[in-house]
Amino acid sequence: MGKNLKEAMKMLEDSQRRTEEENGKKLLSGDIPGPLQGRYENGCAYFHEEEREGLAKICRLAIHSRYEDFVVDGFNVLYNRKPVLYLSAAARPGLGQYLCNQLGLPFPCLCRVPCNTVFGSQHQMDVAFLEKLIKDDIERGKLPLLLVANAGTAAVGHTDKIGRLKELCEQYGIWLHVEGVNLATLALGYVSSSVLAATKCDSMTLTPGPWLGLPAVPAVTLYKHDDPALTLVSGLTSNKPADKLRALPLWLSLQYLGLDGIVERIKHACQLSQRLQESLKKVNHIKILVEDELSSPVVVFRFFQELPGSDPGLNAIPAPSAAASAVGRERHSCDALNRWLGEQLKQLVPMSGLTVMDLEVEGTCVRFSPLMTAAVLGTRGEDVDQLVACVQSKLPVLTCTLQLREEFKQEVEATAGLLYVDDPNWPGIGVVRYEHANDDKSSLKLDPEGEKIHAGLLKKLNELESDLTFKMGPEYKSMKSCIYIGMASDDIDISELVETIAVTAREIEEDSRLLENMTEVVRKGIQEAQVQLQKANEERLLEEGVLRQIPVVGSVLNWFSPVQASQKGRTFNLTAGSLESTEHTYVYKVQGSGVTPPQTPTGTRTKQRLPGQKPFKRSLRGSDAISETSSVSHIEDLEKMEQSSGGQEASEANSHERHPEAPAPPEAEPPGALQDGAQGLQDDRPVEEPESLR
């Protein structure tokens, strides 16, 4: 009985071992299970934590495959025939340096392939130029080793022409590796031909963690190779149980989601991007950079303003006759506005997961990549609609600000005392600095007096309660203080704004000078008063004599012959800046009236505003946007205000022409008034009683 039991256990173990071996062979040499089943045939998988680690191991595998004596001779083999790694100019930043550091290769082994410049997308690899580079490297005795293509670039999500690149790699014996966010669409039923061509490559790297919103999930590198010894030497396979457990978090997550859950999340992200792309196509002044990539789950857009009187199609490429400085200034202005737009959208719609990035050709853009953020943030279709509504609400602010910039610059340059500061990173109307009397224009250091004036100017401008935002900060490429004017949401009267800034800054400077002068005058007056009081005490001693200063004798002498001494002091007149005696105050028990200080000068032009109209708004007179009743009433109020102010000015002018002490001439009275007055005087006299009543 025991012998039979042992034989049965042995047979069960052998059967289980054969089953495991068959499953292992099927996993190593068969299709990849899961959503990619049937797409990537005869592939193996390597799980790793760092996204770039899989590509580094693939490079080691390519080196061992092409250099047969590398295991024995090492880098001496590479010295005779240097390997070349080809990377796209749109690849992830720092990828080439990482590969060289991991492989121990010098940087000249990297070859950067430029993108298209004339035909095709400006973010796709130039295949014709790549073939020319390969031929040149072969003629120089180098070995083209590996090419990294993109199925969705890191910036805008463009896909290279992987089909043509595969043909080129097969022709010259180059290993083709593909990576990118568009590889996630391989799990869907419909896949574009450009992405489907990635299934024919030698290896690819997938990042299911960000795609599915799974934390602590490793990345996967799929590769095709038949020699298990080389894969073991390259580090793609391992006999350690700990290395085999790397796939456990991913396996558990995929089992939890299931095939339908994986496909649903990727499909939902692609639908969000298509929904945003279709909505933004209907919005003016918004340019989409990925219009030809219908299957790309990445949407990149930016705000642009067409130049008046020019062809919209020619705005993308500057005219040769245009000045480089003007083109650069317009580019920086649009970049600042797009950066402001991206930050505003991120605050208003945080569930969208937007990012602001700088592209070499297009400039600053806003990127929407739901495949990398939607699963984590829970982005829905309502969030996309809210994002489009926010973009439409910000467009009037952007267009109005861009139109007022040039007018603001001209007004500031035409105003004395103001300096226009060209700050390319400021998204508002502009930057202005007030030049005071002691301002050193050649110096770039901090100016305390200017900082004090600009701080007071900022406080005054914020007290006006206008729709504009003001802030103070250092000048671009300098330490001097400036006033930064924010975005304009409505038609602003730039001339009134600039005049208000100039007049207010001039008043603050004059007030500060008056205070400094008054401080100096008060200090000198105190010193002079001390000298005069000391001199008065000496005169009093000489007048009273020495005997009156002796304690006992002085008291007796003052009792017999008291001294009639008047109280004397000094007063300081701030208006006149002089010392005066207090004798008049003690005699008449009143103080001197002094001189009335002059009024602070104001602006040369004062604008009458309608009731409820905020500062710096253009007048609504003659505007078609106002209703008839409201416009008539507002115009009548404005005319009444102008007439009342004009009447007051005229009366003040007439009163100033007269002598201040001369009485006003009596006005001529009508004859009827004289008779009434005489009759009134007669009525005031006593009336005698008749004799019959006595």
Automatic annotation (TrEMBL):
Listed cofactors: pyridoxal 5'-phosphate
An annotated GO BP: carboxylic acid metabolic process
Give me the ranges of the annotated region Disordered.
591-694
Q: Does the keyword Lyase apply?
A: yes
Q: What are the record keywords, sorted? A: Decarboxylase, Lyase, Pyridoxal phosphate
UniProt entry tagged with the keyword Cytoplasm? no
Q: Which Pfam families match?
A: PDXDC1-like_cen (PF22930), PDXDC1-like_cen2 (PF22937), Pyridoxal_deC (PF00282)
Molecular function as annotated in GO = carboxy-lyase activity; pyridoxal phosphate binding
List the biased-composition ranges (Basic and acidic residues).
682-694
Query: InterPro entries recorded for this chain?
Result: GrpII_AminoAcid_Decarb, PDXDC1-like_2nd, PDXDC1-like_3rd, PyrdxlP-dep_de-COase, PyrdxlP-dep_Trfase, PyrdxlP-dep_Trfase_major
Please report the stretch or stretches of sequence annotated as the PDXDC1/PDXD2 second domain: 296-402
Q: Which residues form the PDXDC1-like third domain?
A: 408-513
Ranges of biased composition (kind: Polar residues): 593-605, 643-653
The family note in this entry says: Belongs to the group II decarboxylase family.
Name of the protein described by the UniProt record: Pyridoxal-dependent decarboxylase domain-containing protein 1
